[in-house]
Amino acid sequence: MTLKELILLALILFFTLLTRLFRLDYPSQMYFDEVYHVPAAMMMSSGDFSRPFDPQQVAYDGQHIADWLHPPLAKYFQAGSMYLFGKNAFAWRLPAVVFACLTIIVFYFLLRFVAQAFFFKHLSIAEKNRRSINLALVATYFLSLSGLFLVQSRIAMNDVFCLFFLMLGIFAYFAYLDKKTYLFLFLTGLSLALSFSTKWTALWLLLLIFIRELTLLRSYRALPFIFFSLILTPIFIYVLSYGAMFFAGHNLTDFFALQKTILSSQLSNPSFHLYSSDPLSWLLNWRPVWFFTSTSNLDNSFVANIYALENPLLSLYLLVTFILLFLSLLKKDKLSLARKTVWLFFSFYLASFLPWIFFSRPMFLHHYLPALPFLIVLLSYFLLNLLEKITDKEKRKALFFNLLFWPFFFFLLFYPQWTALPVPEGFADLLYFAIPSWR
Q1: What is the pLDDT of residues 303-355, one digit of tens each?
Q2: Do 187 and 228 touch, CB atoms closer than 8 A?
Q3: Distance in angstroms (rounded) separating the CA atoms of residues 203 and 213
Q4: 288-298 tens-digit pLDDT
Q5: CA nearest 74: which of 192, 191, 197?
Q6: Which residues contact 208 (CB under 8 A, 6 or more apart)?
Q7: Would you kindly state where each structural domain of the chain is located, as residue ranges?
Q8: DSSP state letters, 31-85
């Protein structure tokens, strides 16, 4: 890495850390789905590994119910943090901040590698290095400006943990595609298994990669290792993630009964929620989720809210990218390595949110988070390709500056709406609720 590259990456990482640590302990009480995740993690931090896995005995303090509906891996990190730093809001949210920063690092090096080995493989070494660094920096910068990513990495839920292991698995898979070494396929299965052990959302990508490997299979001798890496390893890791449950005295019968209950509950949730949204509307940033509001210690003319809403300008960029992808479907050009890579990322994107369409349970905008990084990659790739076609240096610099600056400006404008910073009610009505469905 060059010194300039290292400094820019460090600045993005520092920005990510700062925007998440600032007032992380506010609100001091549990909010939104923390009221499920945190009690379970609190039990674990106190050494109780039985009740969080028993749907029949989930009462925590008479007011809160411990989460058993999701796999436990994220809760282990949250429990460990509370064991070290106490049962307070900062402690139960800190692991999400750490994993958000780790996601930024993994995402950067994933893009650095993919750009070198796939997108720009045909270029000279110097040009390949330049474009790879630019792509990795721009994509990571855009990810750091994501409102959904920010909100989910300031709350004790499991989404950011799932995203980190998801990006790690995709990194391993691209390494496998480049090196053709089965060790990387095993690491793909392992990483996606850890993601699945955090949230079931990862299952779709795991299945996509498994089906893709079967479709491209050239020798049946590879079949056992594909099954071992992408089926057996995830199953083993998933069961292993419930080790605390077995440690507390439960057995495999209890484990399978719990999985059946989870599945039944996921499929039978009420079909309506005030802030639910259709998956196809997520690309439009149409319906955010109201996480928190505060009325105490505020002047009547001020409001403070937390909304899971995407950065409006970034969402517009992503919508344009989505449209460009579909327009490119009309082209009948020969599939180059770069274009094949574009479609692979697009397939990862679609697999991360389209399956939600087939479920009748309430769905929310923050379920879109695992899909976002893949579209951000394609946004950054198209953007840099566009800039390369502009021969006038001054025009290229001006366009590049504006395309990077305005999402940052919108991030600053909407930061209070993502973090419950008090703002005048008139300002909130004018900006944060400019679109009626945002209220």
Answers
A1: 999 999 999 999 999 999 999 888 877 776 777 888 899 999 999 999 998 88
A2: no
A3: 15
A4: 999 999 876 67
A5: 197
A6: 347, 348, 351
A7: 3-438
A8: -TTHHHHHHHHHHHHTT--SGGG-TTS-BSSSS-B---SS-SHHHHHHHHHHHHH
Burial classification of residue 299, based on how many CB atoms lie within 10 Å of its CB (0-12 exposed, 13-18 middle, 19 or more buried): exposed
Instruction: Measure the CA–CA gap between 413 and 409, rounded to whole angstroms.
Output: 6
**Model confidence over 377-411: pLDDT tens digits?**
999 999 999 999 998 889 999 999 999 999 999 99
Mean pLDDT of the 115-129 span: 92
Q: What's the whole-number average pLDDT of the chain?
A: 92
CA-based Rg of the chain, rounded to a whole angstrom?
22
Q: Is-contact 414 147, C-beta < 8 A?
A: yes
Cis status of the peptide bond prior to 416, with omega within 30 of 0: no
3-state secondary structure string, 96-138?
Answer: HHHHHHHHHHHHHHHHHHHHHHHHCCCCCHHHHHHHHHHHHHH
Distance CA 179, CA 360 (A): 41
**CA distances for 240 relative to 70, 79, 210, 237, 246, angstroms:** 15, 17, 21, 5, 9
pLDDT digits (tens, 9 = 90+) for 14-67: 999 999 999 999 999 999 989 989 999 999 999 999 888 988 876 776 667 888
